[in-house]
Each structure stands twice: as structure tokens, then as C-alpha cells.
Design goal:
Elements: H1 5-35, H2 40-51, E1 118-125, E2 128-134, E3 140-143, E4 148-149, E5 154-159, E6 163-173, E7 176-185
Antiparallel strand pairs: 1-2, 2-3, 4-5, 5-6, 6-7
Length: 188
């Protein structure tokens, strides 16, 4: 005879009823077996470990003595002055005195190419004419004669209402430099 849907349901409910009754009984037997054991051997071992002599403490390691050095600058270089001249820094050829100053601190607008800079106007304040330059990042900068622009050591020599003129020092090869004129025109 084939089981009916009601018979399958009654078998499943019988199993569930059996599991609900059987699991608590099994767990109580399992826990009861753990609780009544003789623990005297474990307690003896713990007492023996606690009674052991702790033994000597290892001595601290020897610390190496470092020889002190007193700096006397007689003919030595100053350790706090950074010498940025190296093999990759510009140097003038023996007969050529024209070269950028490698020790000069770079100005902010020297990090951008000239064609990325836009002249947006001028400003006159206390007999000083300022050029207003907008960088590619959108920040407006105030420059005057003597400031540097662009990536070729371009120094501003004149600021007019229409343009900023500068002189760049351009490399022509290792140790070879030449001057060239450049202009940043007023943007419309």
C-alpha cells in the first residue's frame, strides 16, 4: 500500500517528536558523565606545578656602548646644509657661466609648463605691478618681476597689460645652456 500525504506527514511528525524527546535525554547523560569524575589527579598536578621553584630570571642582555663623536666643523661641510648638486643637477660648462642655480628653492608655478598657465590680468599696488596668473588647477597666483614661471627656469623680466615676458635658461646638452625669451599673453 502506498503512503498517503497524511501518512508521510505523520511519519515526519513522529520523527520530530522523537528528536525533541531524545536530544535532551542524550545531552543530560553526556553532561552527567563529565560531572561525577574523580579529579584528584588533575588537582595533584596543578598543586605540583604551583609548588615548583620559579628558577632564576635571565639577566638583561648587555647593551653595546657606542662611542660618542664630537663634531668640530674646522674644514668639514655643515651636516645640516643639503648639497643638492649631484650628477643630475645642472652645472655650467667651464667656459659657460650661464646655468640655473641648483640651490635656488623652486617656486610653485615652476611645476607647470608655460602653455598651461594663463595670464588673466594685472594689479598695481604700492608702485609694484603684479601679474595675475591662473594655474591649471584653477588657483589664481600673483607674480611680479623676478619671480619664476614654467619648467625651464623662466624668470619674469617685464609685466605689461598685455603680457608677461620672461627669460628662460634652456639646456642645449650636458653643461650647455642658452637663454631664450618667452611670453605669457593675456587670455581673453
Amino acid at each position: 500500500m502506498l503512503p498517503t500525504a497524511g501518512g508521510a506527514r505523520s511519519r515526519g511528525s513522529r520523527r520530530a517528536w522523537l528528536l525533541r524527546r531524545l536530544i535532551p535525554v542524550l545531552l543530560s547523560v553526556l553532561f552527567a558523565g563529565c560531572g561525577g569524575a574523580d579529579k584528584s589527579d588533575l588537582e595533584d598536578y596543578v598543586q605540583k606545578v604551583k609548588a615548583r621553584d620559579p628558577g632564576p630570571i635571565e639577566p638583561l642582555p648587555d647593551i653595546k656602548q657606542i662611542n660618542t663623536f664630537v663634531y668640530e666643523p674646522a674644514d668639514r661641510r655643515d651636516p645640516f646644509v643639503v648639497d643638492v648638486r649631484g650628477a643630475d643637477q645642472p652645472t655650467a660648462a667651464p667656459g659657460n657661466s650661464l646655468a640655473p642655480d641648483p640651490l635656488r628653492r623652486k617656486e610653485e608655478l615652476e611645476g607647470f609648463a608655460l602653455d598651461a598657465l594663463r595670464m588673466v590680468g594685472t594689479l598695481e599696488q604700492n608702485q609694484t605691478r603684479w601679474g595675475l596668473i591662473r594655474g591649471p588647477n584653477g588657483i589664481l597666483h600673483r607674480v611680479r618681476v623676478g619671480n619664476y614661471l614654467g619648467m625651464n627656469n623662466g624668470q619674469i623680466i617685464n609685466i605689461s597689460d598685455e603680457a608677461i615676458q620672461l627669460t628662460e635658461i634652456v639646456s642645449e646638452g650636458p653643461g650647455e645652456w642658452r637663454e631664450r625669451q618667452a611670453t605669457v599673453q593675456l587670455s581673453q
